[in-house]
Amino acid sequence: MTVQDVCNSMETWAPLSWQESYDNAGLLCGSRSQAVSGVLISLDCTEAIVQEAIAKGCNMIVAHHPIVFKGLKSLTGKDYVERTMILAIKNDVAIYASHTNLDHAPKGVSYQLAQTLGLVNGQVLRPFKQALKQLTYFVPSDAAEMTRTALHAAGAGNIGNYSDCSFSQTGIGRFTPNEAANPTIGENNQAEAVKEDQVQMIFPSHLENSIFQALKSAHPYEEVAYFIQALDNTWDEVGSGYIAELPTEMDSVAFSAYLKGQLGLKHFRHTAWLGKSIKRIALCGGAGSFLLKDAIKAGADVFISGDFKYHEFFDAENHCTICDIGHYESEVMIKDAIHAYLSNNFSTFAVLKSMTNSNPVSYA
Question: Which protein family is named in the record (predicted)?
């Protein structure tokens, strides 16, 4: 198996098109054709983690945070980013990052935080918009099932918990092949009328190329009549943050102890407790202050995230309690999820979790 195989697997779960515009997810260094001897899973990528990979015989690192975030203009070793990249390149260690695209993916970072807390009845807090498209195409009725099957196999026609979804109606298609055509039905320069189905189905926009190739391959016509429309629909399985519920309501004292116990925290910052039972919990792994209004609108009693600035705590305005547990602490559990995912997909090399604590924040 190659580095590209691992990249493909991660991008099946978290396509690169789902990352934010400022992000730098994907393969950051290494040859895509290199055979993989082992993969080390980490939250960050530092010199210590590259050394760990080398010591454990892993020539690929899959990290959540990209070590290269801004453009590099030199590789002289002047800071930890350049030193990490130099060490990886010298030792043929490929580095791959799955960052905000994995934040947005189904069962991504915020979902994993919710699972660690044992929450139930969850859903995406801010679902994606404009990430779905609709395909409409016209096909002879006797070939309609063949094209539908091919498109479903390519990833079209999934809506929530339902697969193989489509709509079709039957009509008459009319065309005249010119002298250069090679028609499947009819004769050159003669008008033809054929019983055809108009078929419609939704698909994720990042699959557009493979969907189109599947349509062309399965369709019997030399020229396929089709059109694709961008949709404003929300995609409930994909997006930012997560909101769910505690199995049992708790008061603030019990919840504080529960939060510390489940996540192994000694301390966390929070706004005032609101003097009511806590049941509904909004979450965002990493820096999540941008989702505070979404959490309030969704009726969250508590919003758990990291990296809140001082003045941002005021924005809660006693609508919910902000619990800032720290950036590292809110995301470190994604290592377990990536490890389980890649271990399930690859059996020809070792997939290991990094034992290096890369959290740059310490508490006195």
Answer: Belongs to the GTP cyclohydrolase I type 2/NIF3 family.
pTM score of the predicted model: 0.92
Q: How far apart, in whole angstroms, are the C-alpha atoms of residue 291 and residue 293?
A: 6
If pLDDT is split at 50, 70 and 90, which confidence band does 364 have? confident
Residue pair 135/228 in contact by the 8 Å Cβ criterion: yes
DSSP string, 116-176: HTT-EEEEEEEEEES-EEEEEEEEEGGGHHHHHHHHHHTT-S-BTTB-S--EEEEEEEEE-
C-alpha torsion angle, residues 3, 7, 9, 10 (rounded to 10): 140
Q: What is the CATH number of domain 106-126+240-325?
A: 3.40.1390.30
Q: Determine if residue 92 is left, alpha or beta; phi over 0 gives left, psi from -120 to 50 gives alpha, anything else beta.
A: left
What tokens appear for 295 in the block?
């959490």
User: The tokens of 57 are what?
Assistant: 């015989």
**Over the range 327-345, which residues count as b (16 or more CB within 10 Å of their CB) and which as e?**
bbbbbbbbbebbbebbeeb
Q: Domain residue spans in the chain?
A: 3-101+333-353, 106-126+240-325, 131-231
Token pair in block for residue 48: 């210590």
pLDDT in tens, 27-47: 999 999 999 999 999 999 999
Q: What is the pLDDT of residues 110-152, one digit of tens each?
A: 999 999 999 999 999 999 988 999 999 999 999 999 999 999 9
pLDDT in tens, 46-81: 999 999 999 999 999 999 999 999 889 999 999 999
Are β-strands 60-63 and 38-42 bridged in parallel, bridged antiparallel, or unpaired? parallel
- Among 3.30.420.60, 3.30.70.120, 3.40.50.300, 3.40.50.620, name the CATH number for the domain at 131-231: 3.30.70.120
